[in-house]
Amino acid sequence: MNDAPDPDEAIRRRRFARLAIAAAAVGILLLLIVAGPRSIVLLGVGAVALVAFVMGLWWTVARRGPVRILAAGLAIAAPVAAIVLYAAAGLLWLVLLCLALWAGAASAGWTALGAGSPSATAREHPAAPPARPCLIMNPRSGGGKVEGLGLREKAEVLGARVVLLDPDHHQDIAALARQAAADGADLLGVAGGDGTQALVADVAAAHGLPFMVVPAGTRNHFALDLGLDRDDPVTCLNALTDGVELRVDLGRVGGRAFVNNASFGAYATIVGSRAYRDDKIRTILRLLPDALSRHTGPHLRVHAGGDTIDAPQAVLVSNNPYRVGDSAGLGRRDRLDGGVLGLLGIKVDTAAQAADMLLAPDSPGLTLLTTHEAVIEADTAEVDVGVDGEALALPTPVRCAIEPGALRVRVPRRRPGVPRAKPPLDWRRLYAMATTTGRP
Predict the structure, then answer these.
(1) Whole-structure pTM value
(2) Which of 253, 284, 329, 420 is deepest in the core (most CB within 10 A)?
(3) Through-space distance between the first and last CA atoms of the chain, rounded to whole angstroms
């Protein structure tokens, strides 16, 4: 493999670095020349409006009754008021133009620094096509994608045995997967959501069998981080004939496997409500104020390594850490084979703290850790847990752990991949790249 730098790529990145520097400079100069001293006022109005917007959102979800209505009005009125003030001063066009220039500068800067090219979340290994694959398919997942896309028929043409779940009767999915393994299956797969995938993945890992994901659910976060095409589940069947293998980690919470995350606190309480499935928005607005104010739900204490988080409103333990600092990449993981859990804890009691948490990356209300093990204690015998979107109640204390490389995942050789995280915008580095002369 040739690791020598590509001169043409270096030239392309240099051009984007120059574009980023130029766009940012033009935006600053325009603001100073046109607005003059008023540029400070413009920036101040924007900052105040942003803080008021965030605080309004917090009160909207954390309060009820008239306060919620007034808070929602504040969240709407804050940005509107800023726009009106800019327009009254005759400078709205300037604000919009400067924002566009700075957004363009950031985009060009990230391109220059190498963001956006697809990558793999785990090392690929050669894999021969399976001889007796078995796929479990949930016909209700994703609004009926299995039937609508003909996944069963297409999988059977490729030699797979398909077990179609009965939508009218509860079935033990893990037992079906274990029976398939006992019958001689040399690959287990799922066409369904993340919760179903985790159950079958656990069986595949226990039997040392490769596991295959067909994203036929609603969200399919695991498929996203495997670099699969969630918009075209049919292409994922190519793993049966032209696939490679990834060795990825498997998370465990109270002995239960998870491929994405386990959540505790406010979100777990809401997901555990029977009304959540039928009316998500109303259920969230009804339960969230008490969960955030700690009037309901257990008192949690989280131990991870040498760190302790006391009384957080929400805790998310993930199979490898999620991205932070990249708004476009939130909810994605750069690696699935890092051998660590990601832990995110939120402890916010006021609207000002909520604004600080959302606007400041080092807010004390937000705890971000990586660990090999986390223990969640509570002042109750059981605690609600959301495991890959499924609601469970587990006895306390709850132990979360990571099993490095426990899962063999078969994926198509050709797949979209995972866009790289955006690096920090290092303007010194961009300036150095922009002012370099000559061909590399």
Answers:
(1) 0.82
(2) 253
(3) 20
Taking the C-alpha atoms of residue 43 and residue 231, their distance in angstroms, rounded to an integer, is: 40
Question: Which phi and psi (to 5°) does residue 277 adopt?
Answer: -65, -35
Residue 261 neighbours by CB distance under 10 Å: 26
Mean pLDDT, residues 27-53: 91
C-alpha atoms less than 13 angstroms from C-alpha of 147 in its C-beta half-sphere: 10
Q: Count other Cβ atoms within 10 Å, centred on residue 82.
A: 21
For the chain, the residue count is: 440
Whose tokens are 């392309």? That residue is 12
Handedness of CA 350, 352, 356, 359 (dihedral sign): positive
Which distant-in-sequence residues (6+ apart) come within 8 Å of 290 by Cβ?
296, 297
- Residue (of 192, 181, 266, 265) closest to 223 by Cα position: 192
The three-class DSSP label of residue 427 is: helix
- For residues 60 and 71, is the Cβ–Cβ distance under 8 A? yes
pLDDT of residue 427: 92
Rounded to the nearest 10°, the torsion over CA 41, 47, 53, 55 is -120
Distance CA 191, CA 136 (A): 6
The strand pairing partners of 185, in sequence order, are none
Check residues 393 and 270 and name the one with the higher pLDDT. Answer: 393
Contacts of 9 (CB under 8 A, 6+ apart): none
Nearest to 428 by CA among 29, 110, 115, 21: 21
Alpha carbon distance 364, 297 (integer Å): 22
How many degrees, rounded to 5, is the angle at CA 250 between CA 361 and CA 245?
110
Q: What is the mean pLDDT of residues 174-187?
A: 95
DSSP for 278-335, written as a single string: T-HHHHHHHHHHHHHHTSSS--EEEEETTEEEES-SEEEEEESPPP-S-GGGTT--S-
Dihedral pair phi/psi, residue 260, rounded to 5°: -110, -75
The rounded Cα 334 to chain-centroid distance in angstroms is: 10
In the predicted structure, residue 2 carries a pLDDT above the cut 50? no
What are the structure tokens assigned to 352, written together? 């000002």
